[in-house]
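Record type: ASSEMBLY
Status: queued
Input:
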Amino acid sequence: MLLGLTHRRCLLKCRSVKSQTTRSAVVDSALSAFRSICGEDGVSLAAAVREQHGKDESVHRCRPPDVVVFPRCVEEVSAVAKVCHKHDFPIIPFGTGTGLEGGVGAVKGGVCFSLRNMDQVLDLHQEDFDVTVEPGVTRKALNAYLRDTGLWFPVDPGADASLCGMAATSASGTNAVRYGTMRENVLNLEVVLADGTIVHTAGKGRRPRKTSAGYNLTNLFVGSEGTLGIITKTTLRLYGIPESMVSAICSFPSVQAAVDSTVQILQSGVPIARIEFLDDVMIDACNRFSSLSYPVTPTLFLEFHGSERSLEEQVNTAEDITQSNGGSDFQWARDPETRNKLWKARHDAWYAAQALRPGCKAYSTDVCVPLSQLPQIIVETKEDLMENRLTGPIAGHVGDGNFHCLMVVDPDDPEELHRVHLFTERLARRALAMDGTCTGEHGVGLGKRALLCEELGHTSIQVMQGLKDALDPKNLMNPEKVLQLRRV
Amino acid sequence: MSGRVLVGVKRVIDYAVKIRVKPDNSGIVTDGVKHSMNPFCEIAIEEAVKLKEKKLIKEVVAVSCGPQQSQETIRTALAMGADRGIHVEVTGKDYEALGPLQVSKIMAALAKKEDAQLIILGKQAIDDDCNQTGQMTAALLDWPQGTFASEVALEGDKVKVVREIDGGLETIKINTPAVVTADLRLNTPRYATLPNIMKAKKKKIANMKPADLGVDLTSRLEVLRVDEPPQRQAGVKVETGGGPGGQTEGGRDDIEASGARRGAQNYADGTL
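Status: finished
Output:
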């Protein structure tokens, strides 16, 4: 829906090149090969299954693949990939379908590799703080597995996503400010390329905490969104579960005051775990949705991790800083029940935003700018929203300079959809103009390919295209994502 | 009052594992399978530790009956805040036949030996689903019991327990010493943190055998066979044409074949 009219026309042209029936007939010829590799149960042509695997949680419409396969091990993934390579079928890896940029849509049809049956936690090394997992393991499942060890994997993008999928989209989350994103926390990957070759990006079974051995292949695939290979194992860096946590909330008279506080807290060396910003529109929505009564002004939600003693120091420092910036109503809590109550507004933000206009859908924008630019971009964005009569409460990972407008839009109103689409393009360009990026954590997917070109510039895009050509010369891996179709 | 609470913790197959039956149908595959503390036992430990943090009781003792590996479960309890552990060693055939009756005899003996004020157990174990050990322990000791607890409050020498029952919630007040069994909503167990796991290594676990407590482990039960639940059949489409009373000929046959009509009849005439 938010693709814009020119994109849609381009896609329709692609579809008409190979008609539906011709493509299906070609796929049919390979079905027996798929069945002999994955078993009778491991291949599905059912419409419901294909539709389920053709969409994620973005606003992009469903684009079902021609067939869904369910491989059980990396050897099966490789064998099926070889068949696809022989027949020139597009290959689309699928984890949990919780992406936000249409990354799993089978724009040119093809074979969806649903990796959910590969669901083992392999090789946990407690003393080394690392673990290797298969694509079917989600982040909550891993943390439940680890609960007796005192370790956890802190990257938390909100959804219960596949960890390999999180690696593929370079996911991030609310505690990236302290624990980093996937880029900093993936030590090694096992990847199957378009021709079935199995690659271990840091060497098979290797898991040193740091290395300077050769090209950084691991981080080449992190964030590649399935366009360079299928991730079948990821080795992750683990952290100790914090001994104690304290949550706090503080209201500010302006966005500037909130961001200034954030910068100063970071500068003072407080190892803050989460620092989330909600604007006045969002706080108002949360008040209504959860029957709270927070002051309707820019608000920061903070979370501190550490030992009992260090927490006291952290909270005191943070409180002093917020007060010196005009912050008020500073509340904090240590026990889980009160902490959850304090953070309830932030947790329910998505639903609170949707509740502003029942019957409408919510779409999250995602840009990231240097911290110093955050007040200006938020102020300009709010003006843009008001000028164009759009509903877009703002929630942000302000410690990273990353914020989301939760656009609440009527899916049956094409005029409003168009206004939202133009708004998101302006927002992305505004971020680019401030030395930022058009996507802080959601990825490029289908909708931001043109913006990626603007962000990186022609030369860098050419380098990326060169890498893509080297690893996937037939352009079978998740076509039409990240990089635009090259105009020959 | 001694201020001492005994908490039973059982080592079971982890709840997230897909259970497989042994090919000879003699039992479940346990070799190489991930084990962890029974979730209801985690809730029991959490409640005991909370009582200690509120200074309402003085000492939490974690007890587990089983082979050497049960000590890992006790260590987890210690990492969550229990003060010391007791490992009652039961191995081999005795362990395979270990059930609520024997465990309750062990818990009763330990309660007397340790002069316990309160015993907190999980309401049931997720492997056998018996839901008997708490009740049997209370009966052997002739102590009051507050089972399926979703709230526990110590009030002097009494305990107020809010119980989850079919009709809703029932609040009872019982004298101590007493047995309480923990239900799901009693609390949310804490994660064991690394510093606490390190500290737990220094806490003591006493070893003993059931014979030391004068307990006879002979089981009155014999497991004959273990089978997986029947595979789910595909749904059967039947002809429409009225309710169980009046279908077309062909429809009736379909429904009878799938047993649905018999089922409906049983429901109608009250045999189900």
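Annotation: The interface with chain B takes residues 141, 144-145, 147-152, 240-243, 307, 336 of chain A (CB under 8 Å).
Annotation: Chain A has 17 helices and 19 strands.
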